[in-house]
């Protein structure tokens, strides 16, 4: 290889940089120079100058491929040596640990070891936990309705009395509701601080699943009504209690239970706070009050507000037309 091989590199680089078309355009310029300024193409037979060009480019190609292969082999050898050195170091550290000897480790290795040990302890705590929420105070659990004063309410006997929040206090959790939403509170029976990653909380359009990771969920069923998934949220409170807010789709009905496997509460005993109704605008409040009145009337087998309006219209028509016989007229 000539010692002057790179003598014209700077000049050629400066020329090559001016060719936006890359190597093909640069080679075109060189060929044009030879055509215009020399007898390269005309001074010899075509086969001669073609063989000359192929020989030059083939030689440079072989040199380039050889250098490339050497670089690849060098990188592979360096990577293999590095991996072998790291493997030997790991084996040496492990042997020292196994032999109860003191060894120096990096801060990153120490942090990784501490995290691994913490994860093992947390998983052990999760595995040893009951996997269920803490039992509520027995005195607070919603009780079944044993008797009613009104004969029209006989069907309510056996259903649970709603709690103060118009929901239900069960053995493992309690829930409350307004017409727009449901709030669920689940205190877990664990001896350590929970993290969000320890929990499984899946809220579907009409399904709910709650539990600890790696264990059977204690709520896994169909909701009483459909909810807006994008509006539902859950938070971990005091590291042991899960709070879930469910946004109802149908905001005109009271839920009789959280999931279909829960005992039913008496929706006739629900008594929404006046202050909650007063928060609504006039039109919405009138609609809600009418809906609540109609629901109670239907449950008691009595005419709804719409039925009463129809009856009033019929009575006025009777008064205006006493000559007509309405004895066989039925009200639907």
Describe the overall structure.
- The protein is an alpha+beta fold.
- 42% of the residues lie in helices and 12% in strands.
- It has helices at residues 9-17, 23-37, 46-98, 107-128, 274-278, 282-299, 305-320, and strands spanning 168-169, 174-177, 181-187, 199-203, 207-212, 219-222, 233-237, 241-247.
- The strands form 2 sheets. It has a 5-stranded antiparallel sheet with strand order 1-2-3-8-7, with no helix packed on it.
- A hairpin with a 3-residue loop joins strand 7 and strand 8.
- It is elongated, with a radius of gyration of 42 Å.
- 12% of the residues are buried.
What is the radius of gyration? 42 Å
- Quick one: overall form? elongated
Fraction in helix: 40-55%
Q: Assign the structural class, choosing from mainly alpha, mainly beta, alpha/beta, alpha+beta, or little secondary structure.
A: alpha+beta
Helix-strand sequence? HHHHEEEEEEEEHHH
The biggest beta sheet is recorded as: 5 strands, antiparallel
Query: Strand sequence of the main sheet, in spatial order?
Result: 1-2-3-8-7
Low-confidence stretches: none
Q: How many strand elements?
A: 8
Helix run count: 7
**Proportion of residues in β-strands:** 5-15%
CA-to-CA gap between the ends? 110 Å
Mean pLDDT: 82
Which keywords apply here?
alpha+beta, five-stranded antiparallel β-sheet, 7 helices, elongated
Topology:
Elements: H1 9-17, H2 23-37, H3 46-98, H4 107-128, E1 168-169, E2 174-177, E3 181-187, E4 199-203, E5 207-212, E6 219-222, E7 233-237, E8 241-247, H5 274-278, H6 282-299, H7 305-320
Antiparallel strand pairs: 1-2, 2-3, 3-8, 4-5, 5-6, 7-8
């Amino acid at each position: 290889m000539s010692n002057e091989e790179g003598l014209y590199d700077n000049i050629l680089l400066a020329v090559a940089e001016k060719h936006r078309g890359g190597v093909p355009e640069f080679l075109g310029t060189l060929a044009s120079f030879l055509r215009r300024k020399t007898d390269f193409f005309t001074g010899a037979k075509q086969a001669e100058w073609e063989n000359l060009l192929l020989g030059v480019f083939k030689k440079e190609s072989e040199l380039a491929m050889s250098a490339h292969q050497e670089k690849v082999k060098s990188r592979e050898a360096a990577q293999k040596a590095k991996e072998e050195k790291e493997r030997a170091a790991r084996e040496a550290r492990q042997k020292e640990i196994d032999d109860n000897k003191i060894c120096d480790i990096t801060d990153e290795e120490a942090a990784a070891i501490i995290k691994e040990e913490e994860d093992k302890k947390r998983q052990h705590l999760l595995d040893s936990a009951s996997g269920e929420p803490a039992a509520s105070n027995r005195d607070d659990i919603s009780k079944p309705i044993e008797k009613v004063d009104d004969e029209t309410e006989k069907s309510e006997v056996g259903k649970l009395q709603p709690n103060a929040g118009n929901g239900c206090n069960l053995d493992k959790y309690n829930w409350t509701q307004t017409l727009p939403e449901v709030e669920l509170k689940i205190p877990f029976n664990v001896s350590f601080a929970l993290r969000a990653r320890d929990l499984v909380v899946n809220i579907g359009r009409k399904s709910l699943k709650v539990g600890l990771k790696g264990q059977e969920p204690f709520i896994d069923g169909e909701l009483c009504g459909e909810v807006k998934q994008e509006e539902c949220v859950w938070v971990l409170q005091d590291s042991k209690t899960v709070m879930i807010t469910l946004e109802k789709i149908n905001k005109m009905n009271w839920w009789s239970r959280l999931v279909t496997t829960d005992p039913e509460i008496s929706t006739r005993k629900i008594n929404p706070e006046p202050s909650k109704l007063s928060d609504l605008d006039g039109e919405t409040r009138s609609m809600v009050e009418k809906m609540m009145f109609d629901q109670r009337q239907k449950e008691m087998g009595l005419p709804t507000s719409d039925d009463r309006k129809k009856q009033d219209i019929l009575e006025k028509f009777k008064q205006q037309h006493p000559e007509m016989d309405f004895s066989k007229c039925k009200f639907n």
